[in-house]
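Help needed: design a sequence for this.
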């Protein structure tokens, strides 16, 4: 098993080739790379294609974030960069009910028609949180009344929280 802290340092402070090697090594660590989530999310938008691909590969395999990472993920979910926001929203959804405090950020992203794939992911994430909170339900119902494919994601989320 790799030294995750050393790989995170390499991602943050290394030259590009070192960052790529660290992201690639982390991609093989699965859930053990969880501590790297806050560092990896911004790299999902790297201008270097190889670094971006390894960062995304790791995020795909890392599983849910730690509760201590929720606040930082909320900040990333508000990022104007679609790739960063997408991965932050995805990870908030993976956190399930422990990300309930992020619902307002997810509702905001749900209403952002300028970024449809982040919008769809926000609907999914709200369903994963699973809280039949009136604000969540109202936002999902409004999205469900709209056009596809967002409406389909919103309907699925409403079913997941049993609020349809």
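Sure. Designed sequence:
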């Amino acid at each position: 098993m790799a030294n995750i802290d050393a790989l995170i340092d390499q991602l943050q402070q290394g030259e590009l080739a070192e960052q790529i090697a660290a992201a690639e090594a982390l991609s093989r660590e699965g859930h053990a790379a969880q501590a790297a989530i806050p560092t990896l999310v911004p790299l999902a938008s790297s201008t270097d294609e190889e670094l971006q691909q390894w960062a995304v590969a790791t995020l795909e395999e890392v599983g849910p974030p730690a509760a201590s990472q929720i606040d930082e993920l909320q900040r990333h979910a508000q990022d104007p960069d679609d790739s960063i926001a997408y991965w932050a929203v995805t990870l908030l959804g993976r956190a399930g009910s422990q990300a309930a405090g992020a619902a307002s950020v997810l509702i905001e992203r749900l209403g952002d028609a300028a970024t449809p794939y982040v919008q769809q992911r926000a609907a999914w994430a709200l369903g994963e949180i699973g809280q039949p909170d009136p604000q969540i339900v109202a936002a999902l119902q409004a999205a469900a009344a709209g056009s596809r494919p967002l409406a389909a994601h919103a309907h699925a989320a409403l079913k997941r929280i049993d609020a349809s």
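The mean pLDDT is 95.
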